[in-house]
Amino acid sequence: MEPKIALQLWSIKEDCEKDFRNTLREVKKAGYAGVEFAGYHGLSATEVRDLLNELDLAVAASHVPYEKLVDDFDATVAFEKAIGNTRIVIPYATFPDKKGWEDFAATLKTLLPTLQAEGFTVYYHNHDHEFTSISDFDAVAYLATALPGLKLEVDVYWLQYAEQNVDAWLEAQKAAVGLLHIKEMQAEPKESTEIGKGILPIVEYVQKAKTFELPWLIVEQEAFQALTPMEAMRANYQALHKIIEECR
């Protein structure tokens, strides 16, 4: 199985804020097969769905804050269904101690079956703090163990940033890994950059995704050096597409 390429729209958030419709048109022109939402910039679910249909762009996933799922469940579910999304990603959580993560897992345990009954797969997206903020505690691995129905959207950049052995960690959590965020890292300063310009073994991550039979590789970039976000968006597609072709 060959994964398709999607863009996490947070990568070009300022452009989305200025002109969401035309920005998505540019994403499609760049070659992306899908997008991962991080907000809808004032468009209704019908408007989003119609725009995706017009552009022949798929919804790879949507980042939906945990609080929104708890506080506005019905409207959130209705919106995501209307745009054709089936993957809800909780983009962030943080707690000062293990008890906080345990309570979070307990709440998710009641939420997951409800969302699954509505046709959604639920993911958790990592940063670096889940591995570093509490001594000898991997919060992401804990969630995967405590919640067998939860999938992981693994951000390889943040795994490396947290000084994890990325390959070994992915193998250990293989059963739960459902999506990969492909984000490149430059050495100095340590921040994201365009694919192929950094130090991460992106080829190995693509090969891993194919072995795991993942449906999407989701490009994300959060820091920019020589290129604008839109220029970087185009360059990242070309670089990742070339890697995928070479891995065939």
TrEMBL record:
Annotated transmembrane regions: none
GO molecular function list: isomerase activity
SUPFAM superfamilies tied to this protein: Xylose isomerase-like
Database matches in Pfam families: AP_endonuc_2
Keywords linked to the UniProt accession: Isomerase
Residue ranges of domain Xylose isomerase-like TIM barrel in the record: 24-235
Name by which UniProt lists this protein: Sugar phosphate isomerase/epimerase
